Amino acid sequence: MSDWTYTVSVRSLCEFTAKRGDLDRRFTPSATALEGQAGQLAVLVRRSPGYETELPLEGLYGALRVRGRADGYEADVNRLEEIKTIRGPVEAIPENRRALHWAQLQTYGALIVADRGLAELELALVYVDADTQNETVLRETATAAALQAGFEARCRAFEAWAAQEAGHRAARDAALSTLPFPLGELRPGQRLLAEAVYRAAANGRCLLAQAPTGIGKTLGTLYPLLRAMPAQALDKIGYMTCKGTGRIMALDALNSVREASPALRPTADAPQGALRVLTLVAKEQACEHPDKACHGDACPLASGFYDRLPRARAEAVQQAWLDPTAQRRIALAHGICPYYLGQELLRWADVVVGDVHHAFDPHGQLFGLAQAQGWKLALAVDEAHNLVERARAMYSATLSLDGIRSAETRAPQALRAPLRRLARELAELARAQPDDYRAFDGDLPEALAEALQFVGMTLGEHFQAHPLETGPLMQFYFEVLALLRVLDKFGPHSLCDLQRSAVAVQPAAPANLSLLDEPEADLDVLLSIRNIVPGFFLKPRFEALHSVTLFSATLEPADYQRDLLGLPEDSAWIDVPAPFPPEHLSVRVARLSTRYAHRDASLDALVDVLAAQFGEHPGNYLAFFSSFDYLDKAAARLARRHPELPQWSQARAMGDAARRAFLDRFVPQGRGIGFAVLGGAFAEGVDLPGTRLIGAFIATLGLPPVSPVQEQLRARLDAMFGADHGYADLVPGLQKVVQAAGRVLRSVDDRGWVWLMDQRYLRPEVRALLPAWWQL
């Protein structure tokens, strides 16, 4: 009797043992989940009344338990079916993918003949066209003995890996069950946070945790989740960040955990350690050949990818600490793509650190795999006050008239007529509206929607017939698909609008090559589907995950996050007290106006406050403004009225080196004022402890500028949640303010000043959204 057991899905078993050949990421239009369900239903209605669907099957091989659900079995003809909904001809399916489909079907076949005592079985691989719902069926008949032999061969190929993974899981859980806190003792506020995170994981709930800077939020969330892994049988922890700096802090925290526990550290006997940490990065950051397409005919690191993957995978799990550098080193040593090695390692990592899109984007790989594999996944989301805006962008899409023109000039003759039709419909709609901006009461007008659908269909057919083609036309097709995708789920949670703007008329190209000689050539139009309440899309994700902790220094009011993100009604809330004595931060209000109409008149008073504070308490300060224009005016006025005061400013386009140079001016015991834009690169995620920064001036409430789009957003949110919430402007604006002010005190020993440069900060509705411990 084995001393270990391991459960694996049919899909995972076959992907591990049957995937061979090239990596091929060439675009081929694929069926959506809804189209897949429609394909399954189309097959079902054509089968006999006794047709069985979603058959749960299970089999044992030694200590290996193999589970799955077969698509359909028709007892009348003794046929087992695997149904795949596709777009395009069956011949276009890569051979290695088709081999994988057969392996899955044959594995299900082995399980059902064993379960029902069948001597043989007909196997049918059924490909259903998503558009026509026509079937292409590939058949073979196999004996029970042949199916069992194939099943056992796949199990033998996986058995050693399964034993290794079972051992790893046991060692990981044993180490985490006695995991010491790496810093000896938790700080008081950090302990409150850690206890709340542990309870949320233990009870399978979501948690909103507002916790100020200085308590150690990163360790305060990761440590309790690691301790919860064994008790709650968690498969993975995902630490998702909204900013790149959060990923660095997470890795530092995880490294400190690893160093503090002998059971987690790599040793000669266990070189991989007991905890696998994987960092996910964007494809653009990991790609070795950005000028090449992702398939074996173009990129050497895609050629034979799945043939060389097993050795790379084996080395990677021994490495265990899989940051981007380690992934690149291992991948290149085995001649495969670093980015896609990282995607494969998702299946075998314990902690995954990456951007929030991996969990919340429609195509998020971490969430998608968790659902497919049935993982118990707990998430921690850092700087979660950014999640509303990040998620809005994930479920929004745009298309411009200029983009259609550009696509038409690159398109073959057969595609130009549909593109011209789309351009004309869009242009005519824009010309018919009296103002430059228009928001539609509901969905797109029917004629425009039909033209858009037709372009999507014809481009899809084009790329099915030309699978090797890449370039700008394909990028345009992706824009069309994105717009169609969000349009398909359009509702009160989103806004459909049209923005018209004039453009310079370019010299007309030949009529058969360009739209520039058409009547609409003197304008551009931007068609947008703007998501306003991402909770419509995120709610099912929160419900599917084991637990989620959203944490930030600025999450109030809790209802804002619950309403807009679609959190479960039983989500917990904690507001961790600040570790700073209130007297360490002096918060003052300057009684002046920073409203747009008053800015020029109040500039002298504003810069005099800066100079007076600097004269009384010399040191390094940050001054935040609502725009670069306002920043430039204030900097110029300060230089004129107080030329002796050192200053430096954020520029409109700053690369990494320029940003570092800006921050390098903040030296200990330094003196000067850095001018920056609220909500920009220096307003959050910047750590300038001690005397590197002793104060901040915030010359704005962070309110978005008045615009037709902003008014529509306000109206939609008021209609959904009631008026006077401030959800459209005041709440997100003051979150930016509090984030910027949080740059001042970074440890319990720091002291500093925050100047709120507007008399509106004295209003009750504004003060209610500021930290309670601030003494105004």
TrEMBL record:
SMART domains associated with the record? DEXDc2, HELICc2
Q: Where is the Helicase ATP-binding domain?
A: 176-436
Checking SUPFAM superfamilies in the record gives: P-loop containing nucleoside triphosphate hydrolases (SSF52540)
List keywords of the entry alphabetically.
Answer: 4Fe-4S, ATP-binding, DNA damage, DNA repair, DNA-binding, Helicase, Hydrolase, Iron, Iron-sulfur, Isomerase, Metal-binding, Nucleotide-binding
Lineage per the UniProt record? Bacteria, Pseudomonadati, Pseudomonadota, Betaproteobacteria, Burkholderiales
For this entry, the protein name equals Rad3-related DNA helicase
Q: Where are the transmembrane segments?
A: none
Naturally occurring in which organism (per UniProt): Roseateles saccharophilus
Q: Name one GO biological process term.
A: DNA repair
Pfam families, A to Z: DEAD_2, Helicase_C_2
Provide any one GO MF term from the record.
Answer: 4 iron, 4 sulfur cluster binding
Q: What does the sequence similarity comment in the record state about its family?
A: Belongs to the helicase family. DinG subfamily.
